[in-house]
Design goal:
Length: 237
């Protein structure tokens, strides 16, 4: 009986990893990740592409900055359908209302003939979570204007935007609209013919990147290309 009891205790000792004997096995290594800090407002301007970079995306070399602003714009009085405001204009004040955005830097660029135009906008949020929430909300809002049209009233007349389907691919929201110059108050204003606008929106870290391009090309991917180039410059995970 004493021998059987000793054998049982020995077996139990093996099961509980050596009964207090020192182990030579190292503890599992622990890894830590450093969170990427949010982008500061002072860094927004540095995220915008240069005029030559915008020109390359548009397929032209004669592009310059026409306006440079640090405020949003309310164009609700000029667009016939309020649900289409987010598609008509980057950094549209109503589109960003109650989103928590805290800063913006935007530039409008074009060539002398106005055959190639772009608006590049970066919008700051206090946190990456708020930027992501804005993107998710925008994906739903853009759908309300997809496969439909709206009129834009401007000096001298009106143009009609016919919006296509919405794409949400690789974290980039985009759509294309055919712009028809319909009614003008003075001769010659609409001689340029129809043009195509592309819109693109993406977020990186705590920054939303909001892009509009306009050209004569029907399937010009310039807005998406500009958005992804800017996104690559934003510090993120």
């Amino acid at each position: 009986m004493p021998q059987r009891k000793a054998a049982a205790l020995a077996g139990l000792c093996i099961l509980v990893a050596g009964c207090g004997a020192n182990s030579n096995r190292a503890d599992p290594a622990t890894t830590t990740s450093t969170a990427v800090p949010p982008v500061a407002q002072a860094a927004l301007n540095g995220l915008l592409l240069s005029a030559p970079q915008i020109g390359a995306a548009l397929g032209t070399t004669d592009v310059s900055v026409a306006t440079d602003r640090t405020s949003m714009e309310d164009v609700s009085a000029l667009v016939s359908r309020p649900e289409c405001l987010p598609i008509y204009s980057p950094a549209e004040a109503n589109a960003y209302a109650n989103s928590g955005s805290s800063g913006v830097h935007r530039q409008f660029l074009g060539d002398p003939s106005n055959s190639h135009e772009a608006e590049q906008t970066v919008v700051l949020f206090p946190t990456a979570r708020q930027a992501s929430a804005f993107f998710a909300a925008s994906a739903q809002r853009w759908q309300k204007c997809s496969n439909g049209g709206f009129a834009h009233t401007m000096s001298g007349g009106r143009e009609v935007w016919n919006v296509g389907p919405i794409s949400n691919t690789n974290g980039v929201l985009s759509t294309t609209a055919r712009i028809s110059q319909e009614v003008y108050d003075h001769p010659g204003a609409g001689e340029g013919g129809d043009r195509t606008a592309q819109r693109a929106l993406t977020v990186r870290n705590n920054v939303a990147i909001d892009i509009l391009t306009v050209s004569a090309a029907a399937n010009d991917p310039a807005a998406v290309n500009i958005a992804t180039q800017i996104a690559a410059e934003v510090p993120s995970k």
